[in-house]
Amino acid sequence: MESLYILILIGLFLFINQKFVALKALFEQQHNDLLQLRNHLLGNVPVSATTPPVVLPTPPATPYASEYEPPKPAVTPPVPAAVPPPVIPAPPVPAADLEPVLSIAAPETPVAPKKNLLDPSLLNPPVAPPVEAGPGWFARFLAENPDMEKFIGENLINKIGIAILVAGIGYFVRFAIAQEWVGEIGRVLIGVLAGGALLAVAHRLRDRFAAFSSVLVAGGLSVLYFTIAIAFSDYKILGQTTTFAIMVVITGFAVTLSIAYNRVELAVMSLIGGFATPFMVSSGQGNYVVLLTYILILDVGMLVLSAFKKWPLVHWVAYVATVLLFGAWLSAEVLSPVPNPPYVGALVFASLFYAVFVVRNLFDRLRSESTFTAVDISLFLSNTALYYTAGMAVLAHIDKGAYQGLFTIALGAINFGYAALLFRRSADTTLLYLLIGLVITFVSLTIPVQLEGNYITMFWALEAVLLLWLSQRSGLRLPATASVIVLVLMAISLLMDWTTLYGDSATVLPILVNKAFITGLLAVAGLAGTYYLLGKQEKPMSFWVGELAITPYRTFIGYASLATVYLVGLLELRYQLVAAYGLGPNTLLILGTYNLLVALAVLAVVQRFATLPRLGAAAVLGVLAVGYYMFSLAPVVPDLLYAYFTGTEPTRVGFPFQYVNLLAVAGILYFLFRTKPQLTPTAPALETAWPWFLVFTVVFSLSWVLCANVLAVHFAGSDVVHTPTQQAVFTDDYNALIRQIIKVGLPILWGVCAFAFMYVGLVRRNRTYRVLSLGLFALTLAKLFFYDIRGISEGGRIIAFISLGAILLIISFMYQRIKKLVM
Hints:
It holds the Pfam family DUF2339. By secondary structure, the protein is mainly α. Helix content is 74%, strand content 1%. The longest helix is centred in the N-terminal third of the chain and has 41 residues, at 2-42.
């Protein structure tokens, strides 16, 4: 039925094509007729004998010139010659035909003038210019396939026919299996015969139809592969060894066909089938030596084939397939927690695979004496990096990584040998620089690796700098692009290392001299080196989606370097504090001091050297740091005292850091005040917002400092309580003292602050500070009379009232003395 549909479609297509040709000829004939008629009308060609003469009307006789002149005898005036259009001359009229025309030249009644049919304006009316449209898909198809018969006969029918034939065979086999006409052995034989038939037909057509023959060979090989696999896995007709041997034979046959036909697609097909064979015959309990040996032999054969046939695609397919298969086996059977993992065998086969692809890469270039391309460099670098990663991962499980340093220096020596060989036999300076850079990298990594450094992150940090340096020395753009990718990998690896090392509570790392901190420092060095080299970079980084400009990328690397420096110190400090004091108030206070000092240092540097946009960013950072202190750090100090006296915190080592934090906040406020004049022209609201921010920060911060220090002084001689009863009594005393501080201490402190801001407002003639001072006084008085007065002790009430009264009197006196200056 499908074949009938195809024949009907082809017949319909030919019929439409024939009608299209006839219709096209008709339109062309009509166009020619119209063109000829237009030329006749314009006089560009002689008029035929059948064209009728043109009759022109005769004008009336001329009247007398004057009534005083005597009448003259009537004379028939001569017929004036008709003035024809400039383009079309009047045709000659015979004398015999002229008399009738003259006899009716003067009609009794005037005749309306007729339109001149020869007027060019009527012959050529204005027509709107046609809208030009691009050719449609059908027109493009006809242009690309001028010979439709050839397209249908050689390109379309064969593909449709093959698809229908394969589908028909498949439907027949499916029906036969459903009817149980064919048993399991018969099904396998049908598959083998079908694959063999496709190969036989392909062989017969190999000379006249090379591309079509390759398609048939690929289909036949696929049928054979899957038929044998089904015979092993589903029907259990063949054993594992027999199945594996048959598939190896199929692979070898495919390689032979690719050489005989000189078709790279057949070599790729055979390579894919060869790598898929172990999985098709796998039973879940294989011998890894046999598997990896088979892959190694397959790689060697395919690489030799790609070298002598100059098929680089085969090289890449073999490389990618080997990396995927060996990596999957390594992660599942060696690095996973399995009994008796084959560490030595994994290292041996990793070395063999590395050697095969390095030799293939170097051999091809040395044999052809050509330079290394960007693809070759990528292959060489990825092969080295993957081998080093696999080797270090395996060696980490052998004697606790005692041989990792030896492995690193050995790989450096191997690359030095490559460099020496290349220096003698090739003039490719690009690869020579690359090898020298790798040697330097491996030698520099040996000491930190042997000291249990985090080798992968350090390797990528140094590799990023090396690639950028190599790009600038060799002129290649690919290494510079690779350096960006390597830096991203380094950042991800660094975060993973910090999570693993600093998150391991079972192992105590020494202060500063530990692999987590050293890895961070080396990452900072890599970023700093990249930032320095980018100052010399001129060409942008090229990616498949676009280009990365150097200036913003260098700016980003600079910020990333500063952020990494901050994180290196923060994580190391946090780990050591948690290990010593736990994650409690002491740790939070000291970490807060670190954060505030970093913010203060950034503000100091930026205020001195940076431009206006960076000043704005630094000001935002300063405001955030002040808010962090007020709402996160300052409340921790009373909590530290409570935790210490109730026995839940072993020490008060973080208590003195509150003064450092207060000084840091004062320094941040100072630099914000220094930065404000430079930011005010672009943000005028800062001039109004600054007094409010300053007053709130000072009052809020000093309130917490007062509370913490009153608590510390009051409980200075108290003992640490441990029993629940003692803790309950201490809690009651602690809460009672907090209430006294709120009702007595805070009104006095706020009154002093209000007095200070009033003084500043009067001296600097700033009305905002004076308004804020009065507002703070009003808040203090309202709090005193509506909240503090209830339950306050007699002494506290007296002190609060006297202090506030005295402050109010002093402020009133100051107003009276200098009101003429400030009002």
